[in-house]
Automatic annotation (TrEMBL):
Signal peptide stretch: 1-30
Coiled coil: none
Biased composition (Low complexity): 173-187, 196-208
Region feature Disordered, mapped onto this chain: 163-231
Protein name (database record): LPXTG cell wall anchor domain-containing protein
Biased composition regions of type Basic and acidic residues, renumbered to the chain: 209-223
Superkingdom field: Bacteria
Keywords, alphabetical: Signal
């Protein structure tokens, strides 16, 4: 094989290797929730002196269009100067968003759920040190034919006081992709429901998502965000680069055989 052919073949192999590294690196970081936000949150009852409790949710989640499953990270933080003492974080689902499990937390009985909610879990925390945070892995489902909201109240141990509450804040997409493998949803965005075939938003009653008067979650209207960005998935781009690299290597080998013959 000439030095020129060796150079081309090496370049093709490097392209394929680089693409594979991109894909595997993306997969390894799939559990990273990405940027977090306290959008839709506010202090309610006064917290103990020196304690400042807040929560945050991912700015973006992804819903599997087949199983309707999604994963959410819920984080509570003490931004104060003193320990919080015993507190609890609630993770509560509304409308199309149903909370199925929260690792390390107990399910709230149906009779004890907040009004208008469909599911919820309570996470007991003995104490949260000053400047520290604690994150919980939330498994949920999201019916993309509906709007969906989540709520994170932070209370004292017996639930008599609520120091902070984020939500009910919506996750949604202004431009859903029902025929794609997954649909990205943005925090603070009302979902525009679609049918599996990608028909016009709205349900069988003829009511569209533009009318929010039927919302029984009790939460005040929250700011809207812009439409979801249309981004080529990194895995698909990497697969395309691998294909190009393999094709280049095959073509080089074929050319070498012809030249030698």
């Amino acid at each position: 094989m000439s030095s020129r052919r060796r150079t081309i073949a090496t370049g093709s192999l490097l392209t394929a290797s680089f693409s594979a590294v991109m894909i595997f690196s993306f997969s390894a970081g799939a559990d990273d929730p990405g940027p977090m936000s306290d959008q839709g949150g506010k202090a309610v009852d006064e917290a103990p002196a020196g304690v400042k409790l807040t929560t945050s949710l991912p700015e973006k989640i992804s819903v599997d269009n087949g199983s309707q499953e999604t994963a959410i990270t819920a984080t509570v933080k003490n931004g104060g100067t003193k320990e919080s003492g015993a507190i609890r974080l609630l993770v509560v689902g509304f409308d199309g968003l149903s909370v199925k499990s929260v690792k390390g937390c107990s399910q709230i009985a149906e009779k004890d759920l907040p009004e208008g909610s469909n599911s919820g879990f309570a996470c007991a925390i003995d104490s949260l040190a000053a400047g520290k945070s604690k994150s919980y892995a939330v498994d949920a489902t999201f019916d993309l034919k509906k709007e969906g909201k989540i709520c994170l109240p932070v209370q004292d141990a017996d639930g008599t006081k609520t120091f902070w509450q984020q939500g009910p804040v919506p996750f949604g997409a202004n431009n859903p992709s029902p025929n794609a493998p997954a649909t990205p949803l943005l925090l603070g965005t009302d979902n525009s429901p679609v049918t599996p075939g990608g028909d016009t938003p709205g349900d069988s009653s003829g009511d569209t998502s533009g009318d929010k008067s039927g919302d029984k979650s009790g939460g005040e209207e929250l700011p809207r965000t812009g439409p979801a960005d249309q981004v080529l998935p990194l895995g698909a781009a990497g697969a395309a680069l691998i294909s190009a690299g393999v094709a280049g290597l095959w073509w080089t080998q074929r050319r070498g055989v012809r030249s030698e013959s």
